[in-house]
Amino acid sequence: METRCVQWVVPSLNSILKILSRVKRLHTKVITRFICACAIFSNAMCGAGQQETKAPYDGSWESLQKMPVPAWFDDGKIGIFIHWGPYSVIGYRKGGRGYAEHVPKMFYADREHYDPYMEKRWGATPPEFGYKDIIPEFKAEKWDPDAWAALFAEVGAKYVVMTAEHHDGWANWDSELTPWNAVDKGPKRDLVGDLSKAIKKQGLKFAPSYHRERHQSFFAKKLYVVNAEPQDAIVEEIKRVPEAASLYGPFGTTKAFVDSYVARWKEIQDKYQPDFLWMDDFPLYTRDGNHVRAGVAKPKVQYFDDQVRLMITDFMNDGAARGAEVYVNNKGKNRNWPDGVGNLEKDNLRLKVIGPKWQSCTTFGTSFGYLENDTYKSVASVIHELIEVISRNGNFLINIGPRADGTIPQPQVERLRAMGDWLRINAAAIYGSRYWKVSEQVDEHLVFTANGKNLYAIKLKKPMAPFTLARTAGWGASQIEGVQLLGSDAEVVWEMMAQGLRITPPANLGRSDHAWSFEIQTSVEQHHPNVIQRDADRALSGTKEVDLDGNQR
Questions:
Q1: pTM of the predicted model, to two decimals?
Q2: Helix (H, G, I), strand (E, B) or coil at 43
Q3: Do residues 374 and 365 make contact, with C-beta atoms less than 8 angstroms apart?
Q4: What are the phi and psi torsion angles at 363 (to 5°)?
Q5: What separation in angstroms does the CA of 408 have from each of 84, 88, 151, 158, 414?
Q6: What is the CA radius of gyration of the chain?
Q7: What is the 8-class DSSP label of residue 72?
Q8: Is residue 486 a contact partner of residue 426, using CB atoms and an 8 Å limit?
Q9: What whole-number distance in Å separates Cα of residue 315 and Cα of residue 300?
Q10: Which residue among 378, 422, 499, 507 is least packed, with the fewest CB closer than 10 Å?
């Protein structure tokens, strides 16, 4: 446990480290020893008599299962995800659909298709020309982090998640642990650091996402195996350019790989003090003879899980020591961690029930990374997805895939701005909201949220005729203090009937578009915490929510 004195000394040591690393970045061992010696010296100078504060998390999964959902995350609802790296140079995928950020491995795994593409575009193929040779084209020359941050705040995001490292081994931050980083190569600037500063100036939360869990087999002959072997062309590339070994490798889930995995995140944590530890899912946990959460794991995979558990613990305790409300995600249908450790998450997740706190990292198109001429969702479908996610206790983490030069494709900007326009009008139904006793009423195209004593009935189809809220049957007229349509000054006519509250929409629907939020002001709290489906497996399988007494429906 660091004392206050050590915490005071560390910024100075980091400054010295920066100077030394610029003189000779390859001498990291020497620099590390210098830092360790300084830390020992500072501890001795501060004295051993200072009282240490007990860390809230003891290193066990049981302890981590008690982590609370931060208020900023539960209330904020809307996040921006950013997939950006050297893969953004490519902007292509076989078939024109899918995750373009995975193409670097396909250069080697599907040569029949990608060799002609690479020959036509770059005039060469692996091993003469490979993924490493694309990195100089990742320049970010038109990138303005302050403009990005201003846009994200303008469109209603409350937090931003940016890829610090994807599966390809490239570091978007100023790393002392690998020469394949954005300061030494490519853009020649600290992408994570510059965006972190810009985001925090806007009052938003920031999370560098971490996807290195699959790197050890990303450029291998076989994915998601403990003992991975590199593709033949990769072996030859490394022979010709030995430095490439630290980009493409290490291969296999070795102790050295696991230790590097933890060390890289620790570097990110110490340099940028993120608000969220976002990790991708770990397919190896249920592949190659492993089923980690069921207690079946090869020794190397068990070591991986143990070290990641301690890494999460360190992150949570570091946040607590800083007085910061930090959080973690739990990715995949086969979750990485025991349930309760962080929020449930999956790509393009759309739970059909009110589930345990969850998040959908979703896309405007078919890819997360930049894909030229991607097929995009309509604005209406994006807004409807946002509303449905939030009504079921989820957060909406919408992804953008910028180009290599730092510009955001116009179709993505258009959808961001349309989302922001809708959120500005309907903010009361979204931010700080909670789920109601049901999430939807299908026959009337309604989705519900609750915010204090206000119930929000959000119409996903243009309200041209009177409609009735079936689950308000039995309410008395005295429970309702008024009904209004957000974004409209027109009077809303309503009456209580035996079948429930009947609302007659005004002729003037106001400024909203794509979805219309009717605010029903009542005399009682409208959030019903007992209706949640707390079992993550049942929530993911679509089992219905429970009734007000906690009974399954």
A1: 0.90
A2: helix
A3: yes
A4: -120, 155
A5: 10, 11, 11, 19, 10
A6: 25
A7: H
A8: yes
A9: 23
A10: 507
- d(CA 231, CA 244) in angstroms, rounded, equals 13
Q: How far is CA 454 from CA 6, 151, 223, in A?
A: 49, 30, 50
Q: Which pLDDT does position 542 carry in this prediction?
A: 84
d(CA 319, CA 70): 12
* Mode of pairing for the β-strands spanning 343-347 and 358-363: parallel
* Burial 60-74, CB ≥16 within 10 A → b, else e: eeebbeebebbebbb
Is the CB of residue 418 less than 8 Å from the CB of residue 477? no
Average pLDDT of the residues in 525-539: 95
| C-alpha–C-alpha distance, residues 256 and 245, integer Å | 14
CA-nearest of 263, 57, 65, 82 to 163 is: 82
Q: Return contacts of 286-294, CB within 8 angstroms, 24+ apart.
A: 286/334, 287/224, 287/225, 288/224, 288/225, 288/226, 290/226, 293/334, 293/335, 293/338
* Secondary structure (DSSP) of 463-490: --S-EEEGGGTT--GGGEEEEEETT--S
The CA distances from residue 150 to 157, 198, 283, 422, in Å, are 10, 8, 36, 17
CA 268 to chain centre: 16
pLDDT of residue 544: 67
Amino acid at 32: T
